[in-house]
Design a protein that fits this description.
The protein is an alpha+beta fold. The protein is about 25% helix and about 35% strand. Strands 1, 2, 3, 4, 5, 6, 7, 8, 9, 10 and 11 form an 11-stranded mixed beta sheet that branches.
Amino acid sequence: MTYEQLNSLPVWDVMPTITLGEMSAIKLMNRVDTKFVMPERQLVQLLEMAAEEYSVQVIDGVRACGYTTLYYDTANYDMYTRHHNQQLVRQKIRSRRYEESGQCFIEVKNKTNKGRTKKKRIVIPDSAFDCVASHAEAHAFLSERAAYAPEEIAPALITSFDRITLVNKAHTERLTIDTNLRFRNVRKQTEGEMEGLVIVELKQDGMYFSPMKEILQRLRVKPFKVSKYCLGTVLSQAEVKHNRYKRKIRLIEKMLYNE
């Protein structure tokens, strides 16, 4: 589904909206993240089922917003390898551009041994998007927050996608829906994709009831642990260790192409 098609779906006529400022004010203090994968052919149905309980974030009239993320890693792909090897404590470093607003951030994302996700980020200029080590403020931020020295890391993978963001009426959960995923390996100058894949991430506060979990269950969409960075790396670089991802990719392909 193209960017234009996503932003002109009939469901937007009935789903309430929420601004970026209003969304930013919603704090999930005890957040649990759960990912799901589904085929694009189910996306409209999911949105129609969610229209009563959820609002969609709108930025300058746009509901499906463009994102570009650049993942950094060490020369030997330490961050990728730790994730692949199922290390509970791990970190990702990435810069992200919001295409509608033009804003850029450098972000350090930590996963704890309790399965919790903690993120810290600062605004950076677009000119520093792919060279954070040479930008003074980004360098200082990474020196303080990252487990890797800024000089140890370099651009590895660019991920582009369109994202729909929903929030429930009770403001106890947010939902991101990523589609049209494209991957470009910066070091190998190769590309990868998985056409028709949608990645859903439910960010839930504590143990509150989740209408979305019920919707996904009715659609027979099950939790599925997947990293866009790891998936894109495997799809665009055959040389990396990817034994654990072979099975994941087979399962995704079965879900996508076997109706």
